[in-house]
Structures are given as structure tokens and as C-alpha cells.
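Action item from last meeting closed. Structure (68 res):
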């Protein structure tokens, strides 16, 4: 699975599910360096995940991608 190659870890979970701008920025920075970023984003969009940062995108950013 792609998650095995992700840079995020279970210890980071709170970071990826926070709405605090500083934490969102840190989560996105991890995503931007991740080798499976696009697979993570695709997964979140296909599974209609409503919460958290996936593939470097917030839920509202993912919705905007779908509605383009």
C-alpha cells in the first residue's frame, strides 16, 4: 500500500487533523516532500474523505478540485 511509503507517521496524526493554520502549514510541508503525495490525494478524493490533510490538501481544497 502507498501508506507504507508515506512520510507522515501515526505520531503526526493530530497535525494532519488540526485546523490551526500553523499545524496545517506543517502538515502540508510534510506532504510536499512525500513520494506518495499524489496517491494520497487520489485516495482521499476517491474515498470522499471529509476531514484532515491528505496529499497536501485540506477538505475544502479537495472539494474545490472536484468542482473544477
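Sequence:
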Amino acid at each position: 500500500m502507498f501508506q507504507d511509503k508515506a512520510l507522515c507517521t501515526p505520531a503526526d496524526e493530530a497535525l494532519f487533523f488540526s485546523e490551526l493554520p500553523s499545524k496545517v502549514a506543517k502538515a502540508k510541508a510534510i506532504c510536499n516532500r512525500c513520494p506518495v503525495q499524489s496517491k494520497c490525494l487520489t485516495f482521499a478524493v476517491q474515498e470522499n474523505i471529509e476531514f484532515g490533510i491528505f496529499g497536501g490538501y485540506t477538505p475544502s481544497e479537495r472539494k474545490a478540485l472536484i468542482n473544477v
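Note appended to the action item: Residues 2-66 form one domain.
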